[in-house]
């Protein structure tokens, strides 16, 4: 079958999308553009009511090539970008898109949006506009996968799909870790550091004793842990009353994640107990409070799953050897899988994302669009 991906049109669409500001929660204008493009191709577009929980200007968009409820395959991209992402000026040189260097480019994930729009146009041109394909565009991905978390999945007909939101265009990602975030508050007692230091309990020192015992970084091939933020203390002349420590842990192995969580939080409790025993005779005692929040669930699609097999076969048909890999990052795909919308993640060619050096080659976007066409054809 012959494809007719229009490279120039794809590039122009991407430039246009990149020039519309859409930092998380401010996706309305880009959503409007996407909806009107697809409606112009005869698609049905529905916006959900996730704004009430995401705080965004608009909801997630679900767009269907046909509206008879018969869609069997979805593709997903997110509409929001990270900061600095306002007033992006796109530079196109030697086949590569970059920003002027003062903002991100927003190829994460607007390159995917542009690819999906181009595929919708080609389907229409080929008279195949009513294929059983639907698109899911989410909001607020970059600030905690909020759009996907608030998605009403009954708006989609299909239960399997591809999320276009990774870097290497020759890679399909089928596994991603589960993650938790935690917050530990160590409380001591404030006192004047010069006049009555003995009346105080230094929360920073107690926390430091616990921190020094933690195992962090890459704990095994499935598991990582990090302390990312420490805040506390008021002034150099006050014994600090409290310190707040925030961190995260991720693992592909759910039991191991619980172990790491118990080990980290348990260490704080143990150290505070030891300090309390030591301080018992002298008066004020430290205490600790811990909080854990599930960030996102793990995803694991077996290599034998139709989503993986179809992508690999589609790659072969295009003389490409795709790799199946796992990632250490979390994305909408974790949430969608958790909600019963099985999906794997496709790379689209974006590089150095979340930095002002972000770039993407038009050729990689074309490659991804062709792969997507081939997958639709085979599904
Ligand atoms: Zn992304």
SSE ordering: HHEHEEEEHEHEEEEHEEEEHEEHEHEEH
- What overall form do the CA principal axes indicate? elongated
Strand portion: 25-35%
Tell me the CATH superfamily of the largest domain: Zn peptidases
- CATH class call of the largest domain: Alpha Beta
CATH architecture of the largest domain: 3-Layer(aba) Sandwich
**Which whole number gives the mean pLDDT?**
96
Cofactors, ions, other ligands: zinc ion
Number of domains: 2
Largest sheet: 9 strands, mixed
Number of strands: 19
Low-confidence stretches: none
Q: Topology, pairings included?
A:
Blueprint: H1 7-19, H2 28-40, E1 44-47, H3 51-54, E2 61-64, E3 73-78, E4 90-93, E5 96-99, H4 107-125, E6 133-138, H5 146-149, E7 160-166, E8 171-176, E9 178-187, E10 191-192, H6 203-213, E11 217-220, E12 223-232, E13 238-239, E14 242-251, H7 254-279, E15 287-296, E16 299-300, H8 306-317, E17 323-326, H9 332-338, E18 342-347, E19 359-361, H10 362-378
Parallel strand pairs: 3-6, 3-7, 7-18, 8-17
Antiparallel strand pairs: 1-2, 2-6, 4-5, 5-19, 8-16, 8-18, 9-14, 9-15, 10-13, 11-12, 12-14
Bound molecules: zinc ion.
Zinc ion is lined by residues 78, 108-109, 141, 165.
Task: Provide a compact summary of the structure.
The protein is of the alpha+beta class and 379 residues long.
């Amino acid at each position: 079958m012959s494809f007719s991906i229009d490279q120039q049109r794809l590039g122009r669409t991407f430039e246009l999308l990149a020039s519309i500001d859409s930092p998380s929660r401010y996706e309305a204008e880009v959503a409007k553009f996407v909806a009107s493009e697809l409606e112009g191709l005869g698609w049905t577009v529905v916006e959900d009511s996730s704004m009430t929980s995401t705080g965004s200007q608009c909801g997630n968009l679900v767009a269907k090539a046909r509206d008879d409820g018969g869609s069997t395959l979805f593709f997903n991209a997110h509409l929001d970008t990270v900061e600095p992402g306002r007033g992006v000026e796109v530079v196109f040189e030697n086949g590569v898109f970059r920003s002027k260097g003062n903002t991100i480019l927003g190829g994460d994930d607007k390159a995917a949006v542009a690819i999906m729009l181009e595929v919708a146009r080609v389907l229409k041109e080929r008279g195949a506009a009513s294929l059983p394909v639907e698109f899911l565009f989410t909001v607020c991905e970059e600030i905690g996968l909020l759009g996907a978390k608030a998605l009403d999945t009954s708006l989609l007909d299909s239960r399997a799909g591809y999320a276009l939101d990774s870097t290497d265009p020759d890679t399909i990602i089928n596994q991603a870790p589960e993650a938790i975030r935690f917050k530990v508050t160590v409380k001591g007692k404030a006192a004047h550091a010069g006049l009555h230091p003995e009346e105080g309990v230094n929360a920073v020192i107690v926390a430091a004793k616990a921190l020094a015992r933690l195992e962090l970084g890459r704990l095994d091939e499935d598991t990582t842990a990090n302390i990312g933020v420490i805040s506390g203390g008021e002034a150099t002349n006050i014994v600090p009353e409290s310190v707040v420590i925030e961190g995260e842990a991720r693992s592909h192995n759910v039991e191991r994640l619980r172990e790491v969580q118990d080990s980290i939080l348990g260490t704080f409790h143990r150290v505070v107990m030891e300090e309390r025993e030591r301080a018992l005779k002298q008066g004020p005692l430290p205490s600790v409070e811990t909080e854990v929040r599930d960030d996102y669930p793990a995803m694991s699609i077996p290599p034998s799953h139709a989503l993986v097999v179809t992508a690999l076969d589609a790659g072969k048909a295009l003389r490409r050897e795709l790799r199946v890999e796992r990632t250490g990052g979390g994305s909408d795909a974790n949430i969608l899988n958790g909600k019963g919308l099985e999906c794997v993640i496709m790379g689209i060619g974006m590089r150095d994302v979340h930095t002002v050096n972000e770039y993407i080659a038009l050729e990689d976007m074309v490659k991804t669009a062709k792969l997507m066409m081939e997958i639709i054809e085979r599904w």
